[in-house]
Amino acid sequence: MKSHARVVVIGGGVVGCSVLFHLARAGWTDAVLIERDELTSGSTWHAAGGMHTINGDPNVAKLQKYTISLYKEIEELSGQATGVHLTGGVFLAATEARMDWLRNMVAKGRYLGIELEEISPREAAELMPLIDPGQFVGAIHNKEDGHLDPSGVTHAYAKAARKLGAEIERFTKVEDIVCRPDGMWRVITNKGEVVAEHVVNAGGLWAREVGRMVGLELPVLAMEHMYLITEDMPEVAAWNKKTSTEIMHAVDFDGELYLRQERGGMLMGTYEKAGKPWSEQATPWDFGHELLEPDIDRIAPSLEVGFRHFPAFQNTGIKQIINGPFTFAPDGNPLVGPVRGLPGFWVACGVMAGFSQGGGVGLALSNWMMNGDPGADIFAMDVARYGDWASMAYTNTKVRENYSRRFSIRFPNEELPAGRRLKTTPIYDCLAQRGAQFGSAYGLEVPLWYAPEGVRDEFSWRRSTDFEHVTAEVKTARERVGLSEISSFAKYKVTGTGAGAWLDRLLACKLPAAGRMTLAPMLKEDGRLIGDFSLANLGAGHNGKAEWFIAGSGVAEQYHMRWFERHLPADGSVKIEALGLSRVGLSIAGPRARDVLAKVTHADVSPSAFKFMDIGRIDIGMASCLVGRVSYTGDLGYEIWMAPEYQRHVFEILLAAGEEFGIGLFGSRALNALRLEKNYGSWAREYRPIYGPLEAGLDRFVAYAKPAEFIGKKAAVAERASGGKLRLRSFVVEAVDADVIGDEPIWHNGAVRGWVTSGGYAHHSGVSVAMGYVPKEIADESDGFEIEFLGRRHAARMQSVPLFDGNQERLRG
Ligand SMILES: Cc1cc2nc3c(=O)[nH]c(=O)nc-3n(C[C@H](O)[C@H](O)[C@H](O)COP(=O)(O)OP(=O)(O)OC[C@H]3O[C@@H](n4cnc5c(N)ncnc54)[C@H](O)[C@@H]3O)c2cc1C
C-alpha cells in the first residue's frame, strides 16, 4: 500500500467505487480506495439491482438519469459486464390522488428530459402482463427503468478506475483517522498508514463508525429490507416466449411494492409499514456476507396486496426471501459533500438507492473535491442540510417514518409527525393556544397557519381546509397589522477588526452604513448564487467594536456556516457566529405596524426618523431588542430580534398594543402569499446555486463597481455582459382549485421552456401566482405561457410589476 495519496476513499461498495472512478476519470488518479473485505461487502452485494430515473426532487432525478446513462461507459472502459437489463417500467396508481402525483412526475419529466407517458390500467397490463388492471386507476410508463447486476456494476467502476490509474486495497480495514497539524489526514489501517489530503467516507453500513473516527455523528441508520424471489412462473415463460422480451419492472405505490423478472420467476420487494431498524447504535465489524433472518409476517400485509394486484403470484411458490440492511438519512436522500469544520473530509453515504444514485453521487462529489463546487444543484443530498440537532434518536424516528412512507404520497400541505417538537421557541405554547398549526424547518417548530377549534389540514393537491383561514390572516396583514414569528431565519453575528473588509469580499453588495441594512447576494467563484441575506451594519456598540448582523435562510444555516468558515481569514481578525435560537424574532407588518411599534417604545419611529432599511437597538416594553424596518411581506413592517428570554414579553406587549388596530397572527403560508404578490424570491426556491444574480433578478443588489474583489466578481461581470441564459419571472396563473407547488414545467407557444420554482395563491390580490425561470429570449414576452400541473396546462400571464404596492409607497412610506 502506498504511504501517501491525494485521496483515500474508505469503502468498496457501489458508492465508494463510483467516487474512485469519477476522481480517476477527471484526472485525480493519485487516489486509493480501501476496503476492509472483498468489494461489495456491505449493502451492495445483496441489492435487488433495480434502477429508476424518477425522484421527487428534480435535481436528484437528473443525477439518477446520469447514473443510468453511465453504465454503458463503465462496461466498455472496464470490460466488466454490468448486467443492465433496460426493460422499462410501469408505475401504478390505485387511487386518484396517486394518479395526480404521477401526473406531476410526467410534467416534471418534460423539462428533465425524462420521457414518461401516462397510460391506462389496460395499457399498463398490455406492457406488464401480471397486472390485474381492475385494481388500478392509471399508470405511467418509463422506458429508462431496468435492473442490473449489483456486483458487476461495482466491479466495473472499480476496474475502470484501476485502468485509469487509481488503486484499490482490499482486505484492509481503516481503524482510525487522525488530522495532522498541517491539515493532512493520517488514515490508519491494520496494514499500515496512508497520509492523504482528502478522505472520503463511503463506509455505507459503517459510515457512522468511520464518521466517529473523526468525532462526527452522521445522521444515518440502517433498516432491514426484504424481497422475495418466486419459483419459475408459466406466465413469465409465456410472455418471454411470445414477445422475446423480459417482463418489465413495476412499482405499485399503493401496495408499497416493486417487481421485476428474476430468471424464470419474479422478484417482489416491499417497503413495509412496520419497518425494522438494524444495529441502531453501532454496526458490528464482523458483519459482511450474512443475510438477516426473513420475517414474512412483517411483510405479509404488503404481500397480500401484491398477490391481489398481480394475481399470478397466487399460484406460485416462494423460492427465497432475502433480508438485508441498508442505510438511510432522515429524509431518505444521500449525505454528500464536505463536512463543516473538517477540511478535506468528505462524505458519500446514506445512499439508499446506490444503483440509481451512485453515479450521480460520485460525479457531484468528485467535482466538488476537484473544483470546489459539485457542478449541480445538489442541496437535497448535501450533508449540510442537517445540523447537530439531527441526533441519533431523531435520525432513528425519522428513518423509520421515511422507510414506512417510502411509497406514500406526501401532499404539499402535509407535515410529517415523527421527530417533532424537538426545537421550540419560548412562545410556542402561546401560538399553539391560538390555533397555530406547526411545520418543522431545520428541526424547529414553525407556525404555518392558525386554525379555529376543530379545523385541521386536509391533505390534498388542491386548495384545502386552511384556505379561508389563510385568506383572513393575509387580510389582517394587508389591511391592519399582522404579527408573525420569524425565529426560523438563520442569524449570524460578525465581529472583529477585519469584519468589514471580509464582508466586502464575501458578499457582492455594497456594505451598508452604520444603522442601515441591505440585501446581500453571496456568490461562488463561478458567479452563481450561494446565498442571499439581509446584512445589517450595527456600527460600534458600547464596547466600541464594530458588529454586523446577518439574517438568511434557516434551513441553510450549516450550509452557509461551512462556506463562511471556509473563507475566514487565518489571522483571527474576523469572528462569525451562528446565533441559532439564542436570538429569536417577531415581525409586525401592515399599514398599522408603525402605530403599534410607536405605542411600545420611547424611540422615535416616525417615517423620517426610522426609515425603510434602518436598524437599531430599541427597547420594546422593558426588553432591549434589535429592530429593523423591513418586512418580507413587502409592506410597511418591522423585524424585531431579541434574546429568547424576552420573546414572551415582546409578544404579549405587541399583541396588547395592537388590539386597537385589529392586530392578528399570521403564519408562513400567509407570508408566502404576501411575498408572492411582491415577486420576492427566497433561498432554496428561486435562489439556488445554479442561477446567476442577473438571471435571478438580484443584480440590482450587486455592486459590480465596488473596489473590493468580491468572490465571483469576474464571473458576475461576465454574466452581466453576456446577459446569462435565464430569467426569473412571476406569472398569474388561470387556476381553479389548485395552485402550483414548485417544479412544474412552463410552456411557451406549445413547447416546454422553463420550470416553476414556487408559487401559491396570493390571497390579497385574489389570483394564483407562480415564479419560475424561462430562457431570456422569451422573458419579455407577455403572451403564450402555460403552466402544467395536475395533468392540465393552465394559461399564465407574465406579471412583471408586483401585484401589490408596485410603486413601493407602502413599503417606503
Ligand atoms: C435487500 C436490499 C435490496 C436493495 N435493492 C436495491 C435496488 O434494487 N436498487 C438500488 O439502487 N439499491 C438497492 N439497495 C440499496 C443498495 O444496496 C445501497 O444503496 C448500496 O449498496 C449502498 O452502497 P454503499 O457503497 O454506500 O455502501 P455499502 O455497500 O455498505 O459499502 C460500504 C463498504 O465500505 C466498507 N467499509 C466500511 N468501513 C470500512 C473501514 N473502516 N475500512 C475499510 N472498509 C470499510 C465495507 O466493507 C463496505 O464494503 C438494496 C439494499 C438491500 C439491503
Automatic annotation (TrEMBL):
The keyword Membrane does not apply. Keywords: Oxidoreductase. Residues 6-367 form the FAD dependent oxidoreductase domain. Residues 371-424 form the FAD dependent oxidoreductase central domain. Residues 427-706 form the GCVT N-terminal domain. InterPro entries: FAD-dep_OxRdtase, FAD/NAD-bd_sf, FAO_M, GcvT/YgfZ/DmdA, GcvT/YgfZ_C, GcvT_C, GCVT_N, TrmE/GcvT-like. Residues 727-805 form the Aminomethyltransferase C-terminal domain. Transmembrane segments: none annotated. SUPFAM superfamilies: Aminomethyltransferase beta-barrel domain, FAD-linked reductases, C-terminal domain, FAD/NAD(P)-binding domain, Folate-binding domain. It comes from the Bacteria. Belongs to the GcvT family. PANTHER family: AMINOMETHYLTRANSFERASE, AMINOMETHYLTRANSFERASE, MITOCHONDRIAL. This is FAD-dependent oxidoreductase. It comes from Mesorhizobium retamae. The lineage of its organism: Bacteria, Pseudomonadati, Pseudomonadota, Alphaproteobacteria, Hyphomicrobiales.
